[in-house]
Amino acid sequence: MIFKIKKPPIDKKNSFDRKLDRKKEILGHYNKLASKPSSWINKNDFFHSQDRSYFRFLISENLRILDIGCGNGDLLASLKPSEGIGLDISTKMIDLAKSKYSSKENPNLQFLAGDIEDEKIISELQGTFDIILLSDTVGLIDDVQNCFSSLHNLCHPDTRVIVSYFSWLWTPILVSSEALSLKRKQMPLNHLSAKDIDDLLEISDFDIIKRDWRQLIPKHLFGIGPVVNRTIATLPLMRKLCVRNYVVARSLKARRNIRPSTTIVIPCRNERGNILPAVQRLPEFNSDMEILFVEGHSSDGTLEEINRVIKEFPNKNIRVTVQDGMGKGDAVRKAFKMASNDILMILDADLTVPPEDLIKFYNAISSGKGEFINGTRFIYPMEKGAMRWLNVGGNLFFAWVFSWLLNQRFTDTLCGTKVLSKEHYKSIAKNRSYFGDFDPFGDFDLIFGATKLNLKVVEIPIRYAERTYGTTQISRFRHGLMLLRMVFFAFRKLKSL
Question: How many domains does the chain have?
Answer without folding.
Answer: 2
